[in-house]
Amino acid sequence: MTDGAKSGATPLEGDGKRILMIIGSPKSDSLCHSLAEAYAQGARTEGHVVRQIRLGELSFDPVLHEGYSQSQPLEPDLLEAQRQIHWAQHLVFVYPVWWGGLPAQLKGFFDRVLLPGFAFKYRSNSQLWDKLLTGRTADLLVTLDTPRWYFHWIYGAPAHRQMKRTILGFCGIKTRRLETFSPVRPSSENQRQNWIRRAELLGSRV
Q1: Whole-Å CA distances, 174 to 86, 123, 128, 181, 193
Q2: Is the pTM of this model over 0.90?
Q3: Cβ(1)–Cβ(84) under 8 Å?
Q4: Angstrom distance (rounded) from CA 145 to CA 151
Q5: What CATH number did the domain enclosing 171 receive?
Q6: Which of 104, 113, 174, 190 is the most exposed place for a label (fewest CB within 10 A)?
Q7: Domain count for the chain
Q8: Distances, alpha carbon 104 to alpha carbons 25, 63, 88, 109, 182, in Å
């Protein structure tokens, strides 16, 4: 975690929004990290406070071994992540799509952190639930090797629907913008620089 998030330091927040970025690519030199830094720069320019959680730097077991039937103690990094999510008004998720879905570490992060009593609560004698993270918004910055039209029309955009509806939406977090950067593999350096500038612009328009 960066920007004082792990140490507990609190930057001066003023009138800006409290933004938490969660970077779901385990590769430290990935395009996702460049996009995240650009977004953060744009947001800070407008007076917002930005903190980052880089999943590749955390230490935790991504497997929820017994589901919800037994309690699995959270590692210190995950407890801190929960505190940062509570702190945030706006969340930014930056991650690649692998095999049409989320990277395993990001999915494991959600499995371990978005627990009953923290992110949602089932109602007694009801099929409904309470969304405990309501009031927060999110931006998604997603990289793909697949062309956007193919991912949407042929595959049905499964990763996008999972994030917006069955993960964030389930907990009450409203996805405000979903920006895809694609296709990455054949992209030129000029194209990638354009994407990075686009991410900075998005950050300046939180």
Answers
A1: 15, 21, 18, 21, 29
A2: yes
A3: yes
A4: 9
A5: 3.40.50.360
A6: 190
A7: 1
A8: 10, 9, 24, 8, 20
